Amino acid sequence: MNDPTDQRSYFKKRYAEDPELRARRQQVGNDDRRRRYADDPDYRSRCLRSCRNTRLKRLYGITVDDFDAAFAAQRGACACCHKKLGRVVRIDRHESGRVGLLCTPCFKQVDILRHVLEHAEAFEAYFERWGMTTQLERHHALLRQLGRMPAQSKTEGL
């Protein structure tokens, strides 16, 4: 059994047929990885970066390098209020592919604004139905400011 292909096929067969061998080999591998993770800072940093990269790709479609570039471009500050970003950073990915990093309060405000813009007609109908002229005027002012409504609105005569 000096031929490497014979050895490989023998161990593959034995590995497939022997659950105890499989469990023992798996445990040895896990122990080695745990020990290396605890003792080797370079290995630990590579593992953490890989996990972070996988998470960012899955959730936001960006890599760690994209995140770091956005963080450096913003100088570690929120894209809206320019306060220093802490441990919790919200990622706002635009349709253009650009990435903005926001603090939690700004992220919530941006999310609310998106909701209002998405349902602008329903908000307008609700305000008109219940006679909420002040809110309707503010709504129209916001839409005009964002370029979503012509300068002359249909309720300015009220």
Polypeptide structure, described:
With 158 residues, the protein is mainly α. The chain contains seven helices and two strands; from the N terminus they run ααααββααα. It has helices spanning 4-17, 19-39, 41-60, 64-73, 104-118, 120-129, 133-145, and strands spanning 90-93, 99-102. A two-stranded antiparallel ribbon has the order 1-2. A hairpin with a 5-residue loop joins strand 1 (90-93) and strand 2. Helix 2 packs across helix 3 (41-60) and helix 6 (120-129) runs antiparallel to helix 7. It starts with a helix and ends in a 13-residue tail after the last helix. The mean pLDDT is 86.
Q: How would you sum up the major sheet?
A: 2 strands, antiparallel
Gyration radius from CA atoms, angstroms:
28 Å
Q: Helix- and strand-based class?
A: mainly alpha
Task: Provide mean pLDDT, rounded.
Answer: 86
Low-pLDDT runs of 5+ residues are none
Q: Helix-strand pattern, N to C?
A: HHHHEEHHH
DSSP helical segment count: 7
Sequence of strands across the biggest β-sheet = 1-2
Question: How does the overall form come out from the CA principal axes?
Answer: elongated
Oligomer, anyone? Answer: single chain
Strand content: 5-15%
Distance between the termini: 96 Å
State the share of residues found in helices, binned by percent: 55-70%
Number of strands: 2
